[in-house]
Amino acid sequence: MALADDLIREIDGRREDLIALTQDLLRIPTLNPPGENYREICDYLQKRLSRSGFDIELIRAHGTPGDSDRYPRWNIIARRDGDRPGECVHFNSHIDVVDVGHGWTKDPFGGELIDGKIYGRGACDMKGGLAASIVAAEAFLAVCPDFAGAIEISGTADEESGGYGGVAYLAGKGYFSPDRVQHVIIPEPLNKDRICLGHRGVWWAELETFGEIAHGSMPFLGDCAVRHMGAVIDEMEQSLFPALAQKRTEMPVVPEGAKQSTLNINSIHGGQSEGEADFTGLPSPCVPDSCRMVIDRRFLLEENIDDVQAEVLEVLKTVEGRRDKFRYDLRELHRVLPTMTEKDAPVVRTVAKAIAETMGREAEYVVSPGTYDQKHIDRIGKLKNCIAYGPGILDLAHKPDEYVGVDDMLDSAKVMGRSLIELLARPCESSLNKGGSHAFA
Ligand SMILES: [Zn+2]
């Protein structure tokens, strides 16, 4: 088809621009925490996208976790309306990156290009995806200026810390409601031939056991909270971990090990807190009267969050039946329900077709082991027609010497551009009118 051929040529012609854009984005260190330079990157994106004819809104998520005058939570939504009514396709990327950590051999904020790879913190997760979506949209506008509907590109804060100052806030203000936006693509690094339909659920809880303080030379006069917690962990090893390993999901979760329920013990603290690094004294002899453990339970679409909680309570009840003076408290810290977009949803079908046309092979469908901003688009925005699709290798995210491949960015920009043609260039034949179910009713 002529339009698609023109688009591919346009995108190939923008290779240098795509590289420069990715490098510019990487050179603005948007570390989160604490949430640095959000305004700077939004200003940069505003300049770029208003030049391409987008209307810009800069939105600060006042009062959300971490928002302050020093570290304001800025977000950008850019929108370009077509000449005719139609559907709106929204590309959502988070602008924050995680801590650099150790082990880098490249400058984490240098954006170096070496052998077709651009290095930097956030290169694959996910400034490369953001750059690819911008170039895809601009190339589409160049070959199809009289399109129907609208294109939106957003850069949002705080995905790495839960998304409350970003997509959750915007969804709460109606920016992701199905009457405004119909298709959402989140260019997270899932590899250029994979469509991510959703993610597992999360339940975080803090569990505390109580004891009684006494002199460490006479522990029989007190009651050791750490030993109580040890009994809890032992019971988990005996009953809970084997049970979780038996729970398999039909969700296409990657990697393979995450196709089951999992539980991580994130932290455990009992007794006296550790001394400051420069404290040279000895600890004092005390029986610990408290021990706290944070657990991170990831659960499946087939599971119910009430059952997930009940399993942990069951462990505690079993231990309580065995041990004298066993007292505990269980507090929920955070919960996210699992989500998975139907395979026949319009955005899934469109992107799958574009992957087959661009890459010459069928798309692979996956589900993420951890959550991302789709949770807020689904639960707060009530918008189901949403996927993650973008360039980059997921395993490199958050690692030293993170990079994104230029060819991968170009290929995924072609997939995004073809998807825009499919959804916006031919409104009469668009996915809405092809029959079949559409998920955003
Ligand atoms: Zn990410």
From TrEMBL:
Name of the protein: Acetylornithine deacetylase
Gene3D superfamilies cross-referenced by the UniProt entry: 3.30.70.360, Zn peptidases
The species this protein was found in: Roseibium aggregatum (strain ATCC 25650 / DSM 13394 / JCM 20685 / NBRC 16684 / NCIMB 2208 / IAM 12614 / B1)
Cofactor annotation: Zn(2+); Co(2+)
Pfam families xref list: M20_dimer, Peptidase_M20
Family: Belongs to the peptidase M20A family.
Domain Peptidase M20 dimerisation: 198-320
Keyword tags: Cobalt, Hydrolase, Metal-binding, Zinc
One example GO MF annotation: metal ion binding
NCBIfam families in alphabetical order: DapE-ArgE, PRK13013.1
